[in-house]
Amino acid sequence: MAIDTLQTLEVIEVMENFLSRKRPPEHIRNQLDIGYKIEDQSIFVFEIRPQWDKPEVILEHPFAKTTFVKAKNNWKVFWMRTDLKWHSYSPQPTVKSLQEFTKLVEEDEHHCFFG
Length: 115
Fold this sequence. Notes:
Radius of gyration: 14 Å
Order of helices and strands: HEEEEEEH
Mean pLDDT: 95
Number of strands: 6
Oligomer: single chain
Shape: globular
Helix content: 10-25%
Distance between the termini: 32 Å
C-alpha cells in the first residue's frame, strides 16, 4: 500500500529539509548531487552524477532506503552494498520516524551510506 496523501506531504517536508543540509554546494551540483524519490511505501535516497564517459547521461545511484511498515508503525532502514542489493542496516534496522531515518543517514556513523 502506498503512503497516503497527508503522509506524502510530511515526507516531502522532511526530505527537503534533509536535502537542504546534505546537498553539495550549488556550483558542483551538475557534477554531484543527491535526491530522493517516493515509490509506494518506500523512500530512496540517491546520488546523481553524469556518466564518466558520456557526461550527457545522468545516472542515479541509490544508497539509502526506508520503507514504512504500517502494521508496526515504523520505518525499516536499508543500505545499498557493493553487491547492489538492499541490506538491512544492522546497527539500527528500524526507526520510529522519518526524521530519525534522515538523522541516521546524515550522521552515517558506520560509513554505510556516504562511504
